[in-house]
Write a structure and sequence with these properties.
mainly beta, Thrombin, subunit H, two-stranded antiparallel sheet, 63% strand, elongated
């Protein structure tokens, strides 16, 4: 679902997984899992889930619990933000939300 700004333009959203010096494109993100666009093989370890909204990046530290074997990746969120945290609009032109 696209977010439409008051000027009629859509928000550009990109999601990547950064691990072991690689920046992998992500197709979908769910609760504690994601699907990569291309298959990959990597061992378990820490990584960063990077969400870019109109060029502004939000970085979430995660742990790849089983590593990567194909396209489906399971992870544990290492962020200190609780799951029931409130969110606010930053006031930027991107109109995206960040935890506070």
């Amino acid at each position: 679902m696209a977010i439409i700004h008051s000027d009629g333009m859509s928000t550009a959203v990109r999601i990547h997984l950064q691990v072991d010096g690689l920046r992998l494109r992500v197709s979908q993100v769910g609760e504690n899992s994601l699907i990569l666009r291309e298959p990959e093989q990597l061992e378990a370890g820490n990584a960063q889930l990077i969400i870019s909204v109109d060029g502004d990046e939000i970085v979430h530290p995660i742990h790849l619990t089983d590593g990567i074997a194909g396209r489906t990746v399971f992870f544990k969120d290492l962020d200190t933000c609780p799951a029931d945290a409130e969110f606010r609009n930053t006031g930027n032109s991107a109109d995206h939300i960040v935890p506070f």
